[in-house]
Each structure stands twice: as structure tokens, then as C-alpha cells.
Amino acid sequence: MRVAVLSTDELYNELAGQINTVEWLKANDWQQFIAIKDADVYFNLSENAGAENYLYFTAAVFINAVTTTLKEMNAPGNVCGVLAWPGFLQRNTWEISGDVSKEHIEILNKLNKTYIQVADEPGMVSGKIISMVINEAYFALEDEVSTKEEIDIAMKLGTNYPYGPFEWSKKIGLNNIYTLLQKLSTTDKRYTPSSLLIKEAAAL
User: Fold this and answer.
1) DSSP assignment of 119-182, as one string?
2) Same domain, yes or no, for 159 and 74?
3) Per-residue pLDDT tens for 20-37?
4) Is 5 left (phi over 0), alpha (psi -120 to 50) or beta?
5) Which residues pair with 114 in a beta bridge?
6) Distance between CA atoms of 185 and 196, rounded to whole angstroms?
7) Is residue 158 packed enough to be buried (19+ CB in 10 Å), middle (13-18) or exposed (0-12)?
8) Are residues 42 and 78 in contact, defined by beta-carbon separation less than 8 angstroms?
9) Over the stretch 41-98, which tens digit does the pLDDT of each residue have?
10) Looking at residue 17, which CATH number applies to its domain?
11) Inter-helix orientation angle 174-185/126-142, to 10°
12) C-alpha to C-alpha distance for 66 and 83, rounded to whole angstroms
């Protein structure tokens, strides 16, 4: 199986580093990506994946669809969204939005991945939950409840999460968290980002 990937080096290594039984074709930009004509599947994991036109492709496509939904971009039926924040592609089970075809399932099987069908919504499931947890941690920090380090420790001990909220924000990227919170807050004010989170994201 030939797999074309447009992504950062970090996400490419997360995806390709786990499987050596397929041929990986890494593109550095959109023009290189669409120039790969004979791949069995295309992964656009770039941050602006939702801004591109996928009518070029007839094969199955997976795109990073954390903040832009498939409906918003009027994606064709062969495109599925995947929660592709840093760290999430290493999971055995992926969150997938869109019409998951037999072809998509066969590809996931070859990549040793199972999937959960989720709604075509910003953040999918885990993205919304983790961004909310991180935002609440920033509110607690604003109120001087505790330090970042202590909040991380308390969260890991109390919930058995692999990371605390501030550790998550570093791994995922605080700008990614901020962008999702901004998008979610347009329809649900519970996701309004804290002032401190906005300040730290702007300083990056």
C-alpha cells in the first residue's frame, strides 16, 4: 500500500513510525502532495488541511479536521476527518468523522488502527474535552488556586490521565487549543478561553 502524507515531521513520524509494511510518500507542501498520483490513500495532516480542495483525489483521503468540519469545507464523500493533534495518531483507536467507506476501513486495518465514528463537529470528542480541561486549569491558575506543576500532578493522580492539563497544552500546542476554544465559543460560551490562556498563546 502506498500512503501519501502531507504533515509536519512530528506528525509524520507518529504515523509512519509505527508501520513499516507500507510505502510512505512524504510531501512537503500542497503541490507535492497533489502531484502524487498513484497513492492508495492520502493523509493531509497539516494545520490548514480544511482549506484545500480535495476534488483532485479519487482515492480515500484522511484530513486533520479538528477545527474545520467536513461540512464547512464541503468535502467530497471520499474524505474523512481525523483528530490529528500531536500525540493522537499514536493511539490505537482514532476518532473519525465523515462517511467511513469500506476503503477507509481497509486502510485503517492495514495501519493496525481501529476507529470510533464521531460527529462532524469541531474538536470531535477528545479535542473538546481536553481543551475544556486545559481552559479550566488556566482559570484555576488565574485564581491562584495552585501552580501549573501542582495542577498537573493533581489531575494525573485524580483522573489517571497520562498528562496534566499544562503538559497536554505543551504537547498539543497551546495555539491549537486556543484556536479550537475560539471556534467552540462562538456557539457555546462555556468554551470561552481564559484571559491567561489567550495571553500565553499570543506570546508564542
Assistant:
1) -S-TTTTHHHHHHHHHHHHHHHHHTTSS-HHHHHHHHHHHH--SS-HHHHHHHH-HHHHHHHHH
2) no
3) 889 999 999 999 999 999
4) beta
5) 93
6) 16
7) exposed
8) no
9) 999 999 999 999 999 899 999 999 999 999 999 999 999 999 999 999 999 999 999 9
10) 3.40.50.720
11) 100
12) 6
Q: What are residue 6's phi and psi, to 5 degrees?
A: -115, 115
The domain total for the chain is 2
- Grid cell digits, residue 153: 500532578
Nearest CA to 80 out of 68, 92, 96, 93 is that of 96
Residues 6+ apart with CB under 8 A from 17: none
d(CA 49, CA 99): 18
Q: Could you list the residue range(s) of the whole structural domain that residue 41 is in?
A: 2-117
Tell me the CATH number at 197: 1.10.1040.50
**Is there a single domain that holds both residue 34 and residue 61?**
yes
Q: What is the dihedral of CA 114, 52, 124, 175, to 10 degrees?
A: 120
Rg (CA), the chain: 18
Q: Is the pTM of this model over 0.85?
A: yes
> What is the SS3 assignment for 46?
coil
d(CA 204, CA 51): 23
Q: Is 146 left (phi over 0), alpha (psi -120 to 50) or beta?
A: beta
